[in-house]
Amino acid sequence: MTRVSRWGARLGLAGLVLAAAGCADGTTPSTDAGGAVDEKAPVTITIGDRPTPDKPNDIAAFERNIKEFMDAHPNITVKSTETKWDAQTFQAQVAGGSLPTVMNISFTEPANMIPNKQLPDITDELKLVDLTKDLNPDVLKIVQDGDGRIYGVPIDVFSVGLAYNRALFQQAGLDPDKPPTTWDEVRQYARQITEKTGKAGYAQLTKDNTGGWMLTTMTYSMGGSVQSQDGTKSTFDDAPAKKALQLLKDMRWSDNTMGSNFLYNQEEIRQDFAAGKIGMVLQAPDAYDMCVKNFGMKPADYGHGALPQDGGPHGTLTGGSIKMINPKASTNEIVAALKWIKSQEFDKYTNEQLAVQNAKDSIADRGFVGRPGITPLSQETYDRYNTWREPYNNVPVEQFEGYVESTRTLKLLPEPANKAQEVYALLDPVVQQVLTKKDADIDKLLTDAASKIDARLAR
Amino acid sequence: MSLLRTPQSGRSGIRSLATWYRSGGLSAIVFALPLVLTFLYFSWSPIVRGLVLSFQKNNLVTTPEWVGLANFSYVLTDPQLPQATVNTLYFALLALIFGFPVPLFLAVFISELRSAGWLYNVISYLPAVVPPVAAILLWKFFYDPSGAGVFNSILGWFGLGPFAWLNSPDLAMPAIVLEATWAGAGATSIIYLAALTGVRTELYEAAELDGAGIWKRVWHVTLPQIRGIILIMMLLQLIGTFQVFTEPFLFTGGGPDNATTTILLLIYRYAFINGDFGAATALSVLLAGVLCVLSVVYHLLTRRWSIT
Amino acid sequence: MTDERGIISVADRKRPLVRHGLPAIQVLLFVGVVIAGVGPLLWLLKSGLSTSQDILRGPMQLWPSGIQWQNIPDAWTRVQIGSYLGNTAIIAIGSLLSTLFVCTTGAFVLSVLRPKWGPVVTGAVLATLFLPGVISLVPLYLTILKMPVLGFNLQNTFWAVWLPQAAGAFNILVMKRYFDSIPRELIEAARIDGASNLRLFTSLVLPLSKPIVGVVALLTVIGSWKDYLWPLLVLPDPRLQPISVALPRVAATTEISLQMSALFLAVLIPVVLFLVFQKQFLKGVGMSGGIKE
């Protein structure tokens, strides 16, 4: 147009440079840094989670998405980095202020990041890009403060179930279409698997915070809790957690049905599961992707059932991913980031053509279509989306029936609200001791862990 | 300004400036710049900053808050600290038991094999050439606790095992040290070997005439002469083992049941998992204090030996 | 061969116990050293050419399902061992150059030019020698994330590994001590001939210091070869990671056969390099022991 708009553009750029410079200095951001929204102003955003070079198909798909988005939004420039969330280094990255504009983080983070002002308030911008209405209000709670302001966008939800090896079930004389639904059955099945096949009937995650994570899940399934509602005190020093540990202890030492490896993180246990060394293991259904794609498991061998319960349906642990936005982002950047998130994560749910295209792309990129999960959207939206994509399913959905059934019946219980990853880290050794020390004193272990965790929560 | 003052101060300014220039002057500053800048950025200021951080509550987002000794008291009362300390000492002790006699014996022996010695040398140095992380991943697989694991199969031929290795709170640490010894023995023995070439051989003659047997000669003639380097290697090893991280981090992540959690692993957890930089630096400062004493001892010793 | 005697004398060798015992010990030791030094490499070679199932079921058997030659090119292209080894080399060479640059120029100032403020700098450097690296791990990491005054972030650049490496007090002091031993008369003579400080540095001091430069270089390369935690922290970008950081990450998400062939390649290349240069290498390592004294 005219000179004025060009000046505007330049000022916008200068603002960006300032914002970028501001990124580095670790100060508390002001929520109205960018002033009024200008949806036409040129803006640059950086997105994290770019696939690594060993996955050329994923990179190609990723680059294509960026290009399409930039063609559709000429004023937005999208850059990307491989930065991704990792429980082990995320705090350091936040501290360093080196985060991209948008990246995925775990459900466990916002509870501590919101009060620390490490996430921006994006309530108004969400309304502007018309995203809020799609979201399931229960899931949205994860990213809200007491006043209902929103600080992130949940995009993916999982709940824990029981992954099992159908081939081992068959060899052990068990019906592969009937996974166990109670912990008593799990113990019984594990015995049968070990007896008939010599493999571990059941294995447990124990390392890199996953030990605490799965102990929490088991405690939930026994009707217990791990942390008080307000996140100030631990609550696991009671019957359900004891029962969970006692069960592990019995399976390990009396039945000897848990194999010989008791130091497992997520990748290691999936590797052994895919190699047919483990009969049953607690996993979210996305384990299918890695087991089949990375570790060469036969799709026909994979089964996924509900999280086993003890004495009535109590519920299962849910978690998931959130798109977080850099707290230093200007309003224009936030809006651009939300448009990106909407186009990548949400439009496909409401647009049949996009949903189908997305499925075709996944297949072309050697990905999976139709693997069951749960949704951050309303159930009807999700069901409709799945109907559109059904003809393209390349995952044996019927082998997930036990799990799918349970998503409708089991209550979804959130992870501990306060410092969840630290709580998990301190519970890891508890699980490890029960599995590696025959005379482990469960009562004392839990009491000690509770006092350690309460000290952390108070700090 | 004091830079400009030369011993002949009092003479004319131009003259002293010239002397200053001649004695290095400007170019001395230019030559010193790389050293001063790298140390300023990567040594001196991080040390000061570490000390400051240890007295603060600082998550680097909200404004830092002075908390006095709270970080230190928190770290010292953390129930994980005694265990990590014991583990670290245990690692150091085992590393000394495994890692000290093996290379020394190897070196003494190789030095006796004049013609084939180089072959032993090359072969025994091979493990040190393997990328250390690759070696750890390989050994982690060797330590597979099932009967089909590599070590368990081999021991199974002799009717032993299967052992739980890394999965046992009692065996995990020795297993880690065994790998570390394997990886380090070759390099250490070569250093001993170089020291052995300096041993005065006429003393063997004398000892033999006095009727000393082979073992006596090793004990009374060889070892005392390389006593200096032995002590230094031991101290360096000790200082190194106090900061051990990679092996427990990759082998066990500190498990099972914290049996292999070392102090550095604890520092890493404080800082990079909990984001508690105050506690992390407080523990670093404490550990540094202990190590500082060790390295002062080391320097006193080396000074004494380089004089004698 | 017998001109220089060892602990065991000619007379000893005639005693029956020694005559039979020594070869026995030799054989035992040789077997032990070979098993420890070559065994794992051979096992890795075998496993790198096996199927995953074979490795898991019978790790000590030869190839029950035949040799899988395809594993090796697969590991090379899919795991990209080559580029990670390349990064390792870049990191080692860069650390080497920065270390040598800083410690030769620094030692030159402190030992040869000896300005009035020299002892202060020497003292400040010496002080850090007694403080182990662990004290500055966290603050050093924060420094990399945001360089004081300059304000930029060195994370995900090789500088983040190269520069801190150069701030090693040990190298500087060793270098300084060596420079101290250069006769002052040589330096004075060069000065009288009108040599500038730069000339003095490049044509007199450096050529005289080849052995020590070699040893410091070797120690630096070995140190950076072994480093894990630091590059793990400052190089989160997989395209920049050295082999040590990349391997555990890659191993976590690849099946066991590919993992083993990747490990094999990661081991093979340095072992071959070592065997080619073993003479110079072992001599340097042996000398480094003398330096520590």
What characterizes the major β-sheet of chain C? none
Fourth-tier CATH superfamily name of the largest domain in chain C? MetI-like
Kindly provide the radius of gyration of chain A, computed on alpha-carbon positions and rounded to a whole number of angstroms.
23 Å
How many domain modules of chain A?
A: 2
CATH architecture assignment of the largest domain in chain A: 3-Layer(aba) Sandwich
Arithmetic mean of pLDDT of chain A: 86
| CATH classification, class level of the largest domain in chain A | Alpha Beta
CATH architecture of the largest domain in chain C: Orthogonal Bundle
Helix content of chain A: 40-55%
Number of helices of chain C: 17
Topology of chain A as a string of helices (H) and strands (E): HEHEHEHHHEEHHEHHHEHEEHHHHEHH
Q: How many E-type strands of chain A?
A: 10
- Helical stretch tally of chain A: 18
How far apart lie the N and C ends of chain C?
Answer: 30 Å
Within CATH, the superfamily of the largest domain in chain A carries the name: Periplasmic binding protein-like II
CATH topology description of the largest domain in chain A? D-Maltodextrin-Binding Protein, domain 2
Shape field of chain C = flat
Number of domains of chain C: 2
Q: How would you characterize the overall build of this protein?
A:
Chain C: One of its GO terms (biological process) is transmembrane transport. The complex is a heterotrimer of chains A (459), B (308) and C (293). Chain A contains 18 helices and ten strands. With 459 residues, chain A is of the alpha/beta class. In chain A, the strands form three sheets. In chain A, strands 3, 4, 9 and 10 form a four-stranded mixed sheet that branches. A four-stranded mixed sheet of chain A has the order 6-7-5-8. The longest helix of chain A has 21 residues. Chain B has two domains: 40 residues, no CATH class; 236 residues, MetI-like fold (Orthogonal Bundle), CATH 1.10.3720.10. A two-stranded antiparallel ribbon of chain B has the order 1-2. The two termini of chain B are 42 Å apart. The relative contact order of chain B is 0.11. The N terminus of chain B is likely disordered. Chain C is mainly α and 293 residues long. Chain C has two domains: 59 residues, no CATH class; 218 residues, Orthogonal Bundle (MetI-like fold), CATH 1.10.3720.10. In chain C, 74% of the residues lie in helices and 0% in strands. Chains A and B meet through α3, α17 and α18 of A and α14 of B.
